[in-house]
Amino acid sequence: MQQRELEVFQNLRGDNMIRIKDMKEEGKKVVGIYCAFCPSELVLAADAIPVSLCGTKEEPIPAAEKDLPRNLCPLIKSSYGFAITDTCPFFYYSDVIIGETTCDGKKKMFELMENLKPVHVMQLPHRKNSDASMALWVEEIRELRKYLEKQLQVKITDDAIWKAVDLRNQERRAIKGICDLNKMDPAPLTGLELLTIVWAKGFSADKNSSIKMLNELKSSIMGEKNDHQKLQRYKPRRPRVLLTGCPTGMGSEKVIRLVEELGASVVALENCSSYKTLDLLVSTEKEDPIEALAESYLKIPCSCMSPNEYRFELIDSMIQEFSADMVIDLTWQACHTYNIEAHYVEKLVKDKGLPYLHLESDYSNSDLEILKVRIEATLEMVK
């Protein structure tokens, strides 16, 4: 991948920050989102800008620990720290915040955050396959629609929702198209390049523009495919690694860096900031767009769901499709649901005869050497 193309995505967050500032001055509304379960189609249908606010850096954590326990998940502490220190421009520009009850730590953090911004918390059912869960989730999305209409002083029509559904489906297809390029061997994108591209999507001020950029990037890489494979023909094959587990973003990418510094290739990211939601297109066959949104979003295979079979089916298929030689399962400190699911992921991977490594860490660099030794030892098991 050419450096100039990657720089476009590296700069996207900063460029969109400036655009959002200008658009805010023109009266545009911004809605901060912390989770994949929030149906951003409703935000788009309200003619507002959805932005991702999940904290992925260590710097604001000390400030957060004045209010939050030190042994809490670093994603929660980083997110809250950015909010209370006013060091995240996207939080600053957000008119409202949408939270969700994916874990106990986040839902209590949202209670504290209400002192800073208007916050609406969606009550997520944790069992997918029941009529009661679907009914609850449909009602929660209807409540979100009403909340956005009231807070943003707009009317969200069904037609506007369907247009937003089409736009977001296009975006999912475009991102999946980029991710699926790494099914090639050798993979055309490094793990860091892949992370940079998929992470940048959360800060887009113009979905049409970002979709166009993603499709152009895919075409460019496909055009370089033959030359790329010729150049790689006489190089040693790099072990192909599937990274699964908790969300990873720029600032918390240390495991990806270590893997690639040790000579392997992170070919796919299963987590919710990447591949996990990309196949879950919202159906356009239903009469009610709210029911269509509910049906799609309730399928997200987050570890908060119990049971969570689809996640293991997804990992199984990704191992095959991306020709993974090993799996690394990353759990952030105090994320109990992903920590427990590691038991099932390990069994799945080992039943396939592949090396498996479960890592539990936080956003600091204090354990870099330990992580390096463990990753290197597991890579030696790759046949």
Automatic annotation (TrEMBL):
This is Benzoyl-CoA reductase/2-hydroxyglutaryl-CoA dehydratase subunit, BcrC/BadD/HgdB. Keywords: Iron, Iron-sulfur, Metal-binding. The lineage of its organism: Bacteria, Bacillati, Bacillota, Clostridia, Peptostreptococcales. Its cofactor is [4Fe-4S] cluster. Signal peptide: none annotated. One of its GO terms (molecular function) is iron-sulfur cluster binding. Belongs to the FldB/FldC dehydratase alpha/beta subunit family. Gene3D superfamilies: 1.20.1270.370, 3.40.50.11890, 3.40.50.11900. It comes from Tindallia californiensis. The keyword Iron-sulfur applies. PANTHER family: 2-HYDROXYGLUTARYL-COA DEHYDRATASE, D-COMPONENT-RELATED (PTHR30548), DEHYDRATASE SUBUNIT YJIM-RELATED (PTHR30548:SF6). The keyword Transferase does not apply.
